[in-house]
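Bench log. Compound arrived from synthesis this morning; before running ITC I wanted a structural hypothesis for how iron/sulfur cluster sits in the protein. Inputs:
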Amino acid sequence: EIVDFSEPADFYIINTCSVTHLGERKSRQLIRRANRLNDNAIIAVTGCYAQIASDEISKIEGVRVVIGTKQRDKIVDLVEKAAREDGLFNEVNDVMHMHEFEDIPLYGTPHRTRAFLKIQDGCCNFCSYCIIPYARGRVRSRELDDIKNEVTSLAKSGYSEIVLVGINLSCYGTDIGLELCDAVDAVCGVDGIERVRLGSLEPELMSTEVLNRLNKQAKFCPQFHLSLQSGCDETLKRMNRKYTTEEYAKIVDNIRSIFDNSSITTDIMTGFPGETEEEFEKSCKFAEKIAFAKAHIFPYSRREGTVADKAPNQVPNELKKERANIMIDITEKTRQAFMKSQIGLIQEVLLETRTKDGMLEGYTKNYTPVLIEGDKDMCGKIVKAKIEKVDGEYCIASII
Ligand code: SF4
């Protein structure tokens, strides 16, 4: 029986994050909270933080099983073993030489409209600030037949939208002689699936050929989350990113000319080591020029074991946050402008949930959030709607 995290449970599985200090702190807090709720519980800790700091995790009171980003299908066996035998079961081992994609079936999400399907793991880019290649290992891709089989069963369970995700999704297939477009074509070919979307992408692999091929699929949703990180070339170089701002802007122009009503969203980091006022200003101007439909802004977080952690001229925390707030203001304005640009358009909206106010919440193909009046039994359906106005975080639309 699955209980709410606020209630005592016999077993806890804490899936940890290591992408920032905050992710690690929150992971530790959750482990301690589980132990306070039931100090007899079996607590199993998995994920990136467990992979890179298994000794640290093992020392936290109550932890009985530690398993990193490999062999996670063994969690149930290990938890059962920990229930039978005393001691700590630390099963973390080297992930850097792993070549196979670890297939973990998807058991569904609460709303049964959109499923996130992981098709790729690992990354070989080694951006200078990032710990992920050490926590996830090299690029591994899921076989097309496995993808098709899983999507077929998701479609039978009622899912109509699939979001393909990965650690470095753009690299899908490079290890098995395939391309990301092959996975998109395979999923689009499954009956019952109406929409296919991509998760976060590294921009450099979004060539004109790839974009043209994606555009041939009527089910493909033109929402591109292109990770930018900085809008200044000098900063990008120190980050060991693989593109310049000129190349990035060209890809965005290409997307906008190939796809009808596309949206470009991104992640931007502020206060990377050595980021001067001048570099930050360049980054702001570039973000404004691209006019993102949405951006996730975060201050640089030092990660031990990375090149950037040892770099000179670390930016003080206060300044990183101050710059993040300035960048948030800029990208909020472009977000509002994007939302307003949708007014008057007739769009297909996949209705997902009913809000507290009795409205139905859904998303257009370019991932604009929309509220529509309608009955609850319309959830899960795609309707045609006219966007009437913008109200805060949502566009308000009416069904036509
Ligand atoms: Fe990390 Fe992404 Fe860079 Fe890979 S591409 S090293 S996951 S930031």
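What the model suggests: Residues 109 and 115 are 7 Å apart (CA to CA). The chain is about 35% helix and 20% strand.
ITC booked for Thursday regardless.
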